[in-house]
């Protein structure tokens, strides 16, 4: 898997007053088939929660190889960012929205 290629960042405050920083990104996966190499694109979320007086917690979730084009993955990252999707719900959001 290559490093993230397209990144969106947003910040919010939880109901408990914790600062939450979310990074949404695409990734690329090369797959070898009998016909040759194909590239599929995925999305991921890294979430950092800064608790007052405590260490920062990090959560991350990646879904690989779900889009055929980079543009589809980038559009989906924008949707995730607008919806403030978190790593824990990423799999459900992908299942509900990606054909």
Question: How are the elements arranged and paired?
Answer:
Elements (H helix, E strand, L loop, with lengths): L6 E7 L5 E15 L2 E15 L5 E12 L2 H13 L4 H11 L2
Antiparallel strand pairs: 1-2, 2-3, 3-4
Structure, explained:
- The chain has 99 residues and is of the alpha+beta class.
- The protein has helices spanning 70-82, 87-97, and strands at 7-13, 19-33, 36-50, 56-67.
- Strands 1-2-3-4 form a four-stranded antiparallel sheet.
- Strand 1 and strand 2 form a beta hairpin.
- The protein is elongated.
- The two termini are 22 Å apart.
- 17% of the residues are buried.
- The mean pLDDT is 92.
Put simply, the count of helices is: 2
Structural class: alpha+beta
Number of strands: 4
Give Rg in angstroms.
15 Å
Q: Strand portion, in percent?
A: over 45%
Task: State the helicity in percent bands.
Answer: 10-25%
SSE string: EEEEHH
Q: What would the average pLDDT be, to the nearest integer?
A: 92
- Strand neighbour order, sheet with most strands: 1-2-3-4
Largest sheet: 4 strands, antiparallel
Shape: elongated
Poorly predicted sequence stretches spanning 5 or more consecutive residues: none
Distance between the termini: 22 Å
Put the structure in a nutshell.
The chain is an alpha+beta fold and 99 residues long.
Name the features.
99 residues; 24% helix; 2 helices; alpha+beta; single chain; 4-stranded antiparallel sheet
